[in-house]
Specification:
The complex is a heterodimer of chains A (250) and B (166). Chain A has 250 residues and is mostly helical. Chain A has 11 helices and no strands. Chain A starts with a helix and ends in a 6-residue tail after the last helix. Chain B starts with 12 loop residues before the first helix and ends with a strand. The chains are: A mainly alpha (250), B alpha/beta (166).
Chain lengths: 250, 166
């Protein structure tokens, strides 16, 4: 098995799985019907992308591994998503800020992954980027609407941006597997995306009349499997059926 | 438009045209542009389909429906899901666009106009009920991943718009 490639795929896919779970959990809880449907549609897109990645990862792993094994039967420290996507829905401002900070990255990342020499990853990227461009529009629009909205909405989205800002730098960290994949022209060198990312984020924040946080202290660890306490709770929901009724199918 | 005549054997076309999209029953999967090839190899029909959106839950059903339709016509088949090249709304045939409109779903505009509608609130999507262009975007996301929600300001009818995917 090509361990580096396997890990590399999980590093991409786990972001979509965990964020998809967060957004999917809002089904029936969105602040309005339209936003509720939007959040769950985004979740559906992300899960669709995850399936493509995990099917590929399962093939690489062999041993009759399935996409479901990878999604449901790993332990917390085996998930390689960034800390940003596992942060909770403290309020709607957090949901939007988390989505916006991730979408901005996700789009830039997929633009580069399209050029991967790995044809499967390139195909998934080409497919996904069309969907992610809609996600990015949605979350950017809402950042502007909340930021440039009422005094209360402004305060809440600013609070969410400030809190989540500390998780943005990790998006541009490279694991050992990442570095090997970059060398083989399979992976994306995320360090090169950083400047463009912050430029794009700041443009939207300015339009939204929000302040760009000045904090230079950042959290990291998710890509190495060291997570915030929130992931454990999320996984206990996500994995409930498989843990309670092992091997169940429908 | 995509010319698939090379990739789909003639005898399968009427069979596949009879299979419809489970979420838009008036639309055949052929008019949707979802079937990429259907070629016989060792007496088994190898059918390739491509998803509209990655998470489209209709894909599993479409695969099963194709298998069933071919089986009824006396063919065994295997379905393969392929991602590249990625599906685009350009592959919906003119007949498919007409079927969408008749069903009450506004067909996708070209990419430029689509942007104007979804980002700048330009009013050019025609109401599928009364034909007025005085329509308003209610939400970029609708009842399925591929649609946005609109409302007509003249007849007040809410309707779906099939988003442009390029």
């Amino acid at each position: 098995m090509n361990t580096n490639l396997y890990k590399y795929i999980l590093g991409i896919a786990d972001n979509s799985l965990i964020l998809g779970q967060r957004m999917g959990a809002l089904t029936g809880h969105g602040p309005s019907l339209e936003t509720d449907i939007a959040c769950t549609n985004i979740s559906l897109d992300l899960f669709g992308q995850v399936r493509s990645y995990y099917q590929y990862a399962a093939k690489i792993k062999g041993d009759n591994t399935t996409e479901d094994d990878i999604a449901f039967l790993r332990k917390e420290r085996e998930y390689l998503n960034v800390l940003l996507v596992e942060q909770p829905d403290t309020h709607f401002g957090f949901t939007i800020a988390r989505q916006f900070l991730f979408d901005t990255y996700h789009f830039l990342f997929l633009e580069e992954l399209e050029k991967s020499h790995d044809i499967t990853l390139s195909a998934i990227a080409k497919k996904s980027i069309k969907e992610v461009s809609y996600h990015r529009r949605f979350s950017s629009d809402w950042v502007k609407r909340l930021g440039d909205g009422t005094a209360v909405s402004h305060e809440k989205i600013q609070e969410a941006i400030n809190v989540l800002w500390t998780y943005t730098d990790e998006l541009f960290h490279q694991t050992e597997a990442d570095k090997v994949m970059v060398k083989e022209n399979i992976g994306v060198d995320v360090t090169t995306l950083k400047d463009q990312y912050y430029t794009n984020v700041e443009t939207i924040l300015n339009e939204a009349t929000l302040e760009v946080p000045e904090s230079k202290w950042f959290q990291k660890g998710g890509k190495e499997g060291i997570h915030t306490e929130h992931l454990g709770y999320l996984l206990s929901d996500l994995q409930y059926m498989q843990r309670t009724y092992p091997n169940m199918e429908w | 438009m995509l010319d698939l005549s090379q990739n789909i054997e003639k005898q399968f076309i009427p069979i596949l045209e009879a299979v419809s999209d489970p979420e838009i029953p008036v639309l055949s999967i052929m008019d949707m542009g979802v079937v990429r090839s259907a070629i016989t190899k060792n007496e088994i029909v190898q059918v390739q389909i491509t998803p509209t959106y990655s998470g489209c839950p209709a894909m599993d059903v479409i695969g099963d429906d194709i298998k069933k339709a071919l089986k009824e016509a006396g063919y065994n088949s295997e379905i393969e899901l392929i991602l590249a090249p990625a599906w685009t709304t350009d592959w919906i045939t003119p007949r498919g666009r007409k079927a969408l409109e008749d069903y009450g779903i506004a067909a996708p505009l070209d990419a430029e106009a689509d942007k104007e509608v979804l980002l700048n609130g330009k009013r050019i999507v025609k109401c599928t009920n009364c034909g007025s262009q005085n329509t308003r975007l209610v939400s970029q996301f609708g009842s399925t991943a591929c649609k946005a929600q609109f409302q007509c300001e003249d007849c007040l009818e809410p309707f779906d718009y099939f988003k442009c995917l390029k």
